Amino acid sequence: MGIHSWTFTLVDGGVRVDTEESWSGAPVTVDVAGMQAALNGSLEAWLDYLRVAAE
Prior knowledge:
Helices cover about 50% and strands about 35% of the residues. By secondary structure, the chain is α+β, with helices and mostly antiparallel strands. The chain has one domain (about 1-55). Strands 1-2 form a two-stranded antiparallel ribbon. The longest helix has 23 residues, at about 30-55. The chain is elongated. The model has no long low-confidence stretch (mean pLDDT about 90).
């Protein structure tokens, strides 16, 4: 199971984006470090795609 949230906040000169995601279930329990690395990579990639689209 995964839950993902995005929060967009207007700030001086632009928009601040905060993102959070959590995963649970057997794959996470079996390989916490590997799943954390995958989650971190996923969040960074999504934020980079958003930055490129916004620019």
